[in-house]
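Data availability (excerpt). The following record was deposited with the supplementary files.
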Amino acid sequence: MKTTINQLRALLKDVIIWQNLFYQYKEEERKQTKAIQEKFHLKRIIAQYPYIKGGEWKSFAALHGLLVVLLLGVFLFAFDYVITSLFLVMIITPLSNLVFIYFFKPYKIEDWYLVGAVYYGVLIGVLSGITLALASIAFFMEGPSLLLETSFLWLIISAITYVVGGVFPFVYNYLEKAGLKHPELLTELAAIEKEKKAALTGLKDQLQEINQKLEKATQKVESYDVVPAQFKTQRALEFIIHYLETGESESLEDAVERFSFESRDALRTMRILKLT
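Predicted structure:
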């Protein structure tokens, strides 16, 4: 029995070595794979940027240009100062966007659109209150109000931009899709993908030293025939050795059978099997 326990202890030692090498190999593979993925993801973004840059301001200009034309047509006969108001709004709106970019730095946030939704939602709420207050003042003054026109137009443009630009960014999506289908870009992206695959393939060569040690450790563990292959794990061996040393099992076969039964029972009863 002592010889069997010594063999089990030697196997346990080699299993722990194999296990550590396996974890080391997998962790190194994970870290280097992640680094390669990030490197080539950045390459793709850099390659795509020249083909899609300007989409934001073009879609913004198209949306606001359309809104200004529509609002000008609707309000031209309603207010005397509507053109002045439109010019003021065309200046104020980009400034409010620059405030958002400068203070909140959305380009550094992954979920930037959530921050934008809160910012512009609050802006619309504040503008609604200001417009209502100015409308009350204009009602008692019984005359046109440049501030009211400006606030009202700014509110309408902000609200439509918030809904149409945030939920239905047609122009931006169209420009982005068109840019990403450019033949030169597709050729460049194909070359980047090929380079990425070569880097991932070459990763195995970089991990060759650890892999060789792992293969030797695997062969050493497989050379033991003291227990079946499914019990060549650290947990199983520790329990089997414990059963034999404490006399809870009188033979190796009994110890193996006991561990097999208790591990299945622990799984069935949803409990953790521990050494006592």
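Summary of structural features: Residues 55-181 form one domain.
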